[in-house]
Amino acid sequence: MTTETDQRESVYTTKAKDCLLDEIFDCGQCFRWDRNEDGSWSGVAFGHKLRAAMRGDTLALYGTDKAGFDAIWYDYFDLGRDYGEVKRRLSDDPVLAQAAEYSPGIRILRQEPWETLCSFIISQNNNIPRIKGIISRLCENFGEDIGGAWSFPSAETIARLAPGDLKPLRCGFREKYILDAANKVASGQIDLTALADMPLDEARRTLETIKGVGPKVADCALLFGCGRIECFPVDVWIKRVLACFYPDGFPEKYLPWGGIAQQYLFNYARNCPECGLN
DNA sequence: CGCCAGGCTTCTA
DNA sequence: TAGAAGCATGGC
User: Fold this and answer.
1) CATH number of the domain at A113-226, out of 1.10.645.10, 3.30.70.1230, 3.90.76.10, 1.10.340.30?
2) Does the C-beta of A163 come within 7 A of strand C?
3) How sure is the predictor about A3, in pLDDT bands with cuts at 50, 70 and 90?
4) Among the CATH numbers 3.40.630.10, 2.60.40.1120, 3.30.310.260, 1.10.760.10, which is that of A2-80?
5) Distance between CA A97 and CA A166 in Å, rounded?
6) Which end of chain A has the least Cβ crowding within 10 Å, N or C?
7) A171 touches strand C (CB under 7 A)
8) Which helix (H) or strand (E) holds A83?
């Protein structure tokens, strides 16, 4: 929406290579961003609204300033990582080279741990439009008003709810999973910030103590919410990729960037008509 | 109507 | 301990 307030809103710009917002926001890693008619994207993260647009190789961030960029958005967009270098390393492998070429502007967003865990619990046996709807209702019902948008409700807020309060979300059997996750996080039984530095298998086992969290949801939470770029979540699409292109398993030499490789492969398998998997 | 959706839990042999 | 059934909901 273009209004007077939009024209007055502050903007921060920065150079960003290997950065295409349509690919970043539409590859299934996040659920709170929507494309505007002018091609820019609006969303909420870390309790702040933002509108983002690419102008050539410049990333323009509306509704923030240098302080906000330094505190939140630089890490959120993973701007400290050289994706060109990652792609050069992955491109030894012809399938990875092709997948990366198909979506050259994907970046892995560093999202809030609790929001990411909760979102991927909701994602199980579900489709992306409905996932976005459920999360939107979760924020509208239990988040804080941040001025024309809602923050993602904290684990503490969800943990205080009475049984049945999540009914308006229409999230089905996932309701009890969300509550169990919120209880374990809010009580301190699980410290999500500690997962960033824990041995990976220990971090996985910790998350899998939550009802409704298995290997795939745990790896998504670790990859997108805890900065564990070596996580390689295996879902139905990746299973097809592995069966077709890597019958002997995914090459270990690429695992240091496994999560980035996974996003290239996931998007390629799902969306590229020529890949033969969809 | 039936099938499927970025899975997981539970039941069964 | 592997493999199938069941799970809420909504779009097609």
Assistant:
1) 1.10.340.30
2) no
3) very low
4) 3.30.310.260
5) 44
6) N
7) yes
8) helix A83-90
